[in-house]
Batch of 2 targets.
Target 1
Amino acid sequence: MTEPLLSVRDLSCAYTSRSLGPFGKKEVKTVLNRVNLDIRAGEIFGLLGESGCGKTTLARCILGIIEYEGEIFIDGVKREKIGLTRQLAHTRQLARARQAQMVFQDPGASLTPAKKTGGLLEEPLLVHRLGTKEERLRQVDETLIQVGLDPSYKKRRVNELSGGQKQRVCIGRALILQPKLLIADEAISALDVSVGAQILNLFRELNEKGQSILFISHNAGAIEYLCDRVAVIKAGRLLE
Ligand SMILES: Nc1ncnc2c1ncn2[C@@H]1O[C@H](COP(=O)(O)OP(=O)(O)OP(=O)(O)O)[C@@H](O)[C@H]1O
Ligand SMILES: [Mg+2]
């Protein structure tokens, strides 16, 4: 057996909220309770569960953008948690970004409407200071093709795109950094059924070319269609 790409060990996560009133106590709500999960390289792994059960929270933990207890390894490397005060060195930030990237539920909300597609795709490369202008533009073209859009789309503004096209751009923005793991959190639930089916097929194509994917959804049908293996999450616990 080869080492898993993603390995989650005894992951627990809780949100603290303050209740109202002068004597308001801090309330701690456990969202994830000792979750264990392994994803192998090259597979599409489905995470299924009803609304509010902690799927997005799990994804946030994997990205390392919230506090958690337990350990997360990607390719055998332990995930570092980012403290709000501590800035990681640039090379380490880049290494982190290349481990996992996420595609969010609502493509409209994750893109600036007035910006051009080309600029949005180039942005992650600029943030990580990668390549020359020429290399970046070539990578933008390649990424557009990879997500099923013609390279001429780089001149279009976001508000001139359909919902499905926007989601393709979001997927492109995640893919352009060549992450080991692509996390899709409800990536089709804001889309029309037929457009959603096209995006599902895009995930399948990407996977056939070797991309490892964690596909999060409350849609059992989509998961069954797409995924090699499935875990069901219920009340913060993971059931197979
Ligand atoms: N920042 C936060 N502070 C406090 N509680 C939160 C916070 N974010 C989420 N929660 C709570 O944690 C629980 C799990 O939320 P999460 O977003 O992980 O659910 P989910 O499984 O992704 O749901 P959905 O399918 O609707 O996206 C919910 O009950 C939610 O109300
Ligand atoms: Mg969610």
Target 2
Amino acid sequence: MRDVKPATYKLTVHINDQVYEVKASNNETLLVSMERAGLSVPSSCRAGGCGFCHSKLVSGKFSIAGADKRRLADAKFGYIHPCVTYLDSDMEIIVLQAK
Ligand code: FES
């Protein structure tokens, strides 16, 4: 949980050939929002370090909890770690390693 004025955004999630729309709070991570919506999405460390959850950002603004632990190439080419990423706007992502 982070200290921001509560807001709800639309999170559009591409998993394989499916597209899902999730109502997501800015007070929970993208990973938690997707799990709460019943989506099967990859995770392991849930702390931003392993990269197992890394997903491609299509559009949207975000904040990262704590230090940004993404590889430089991930950050450069627009990949995020949903386990430590919070929405600051509507967002669209592509989940790469769906179970
Ligand atoms: S689950 Fe390890 S970086 Fe997200």
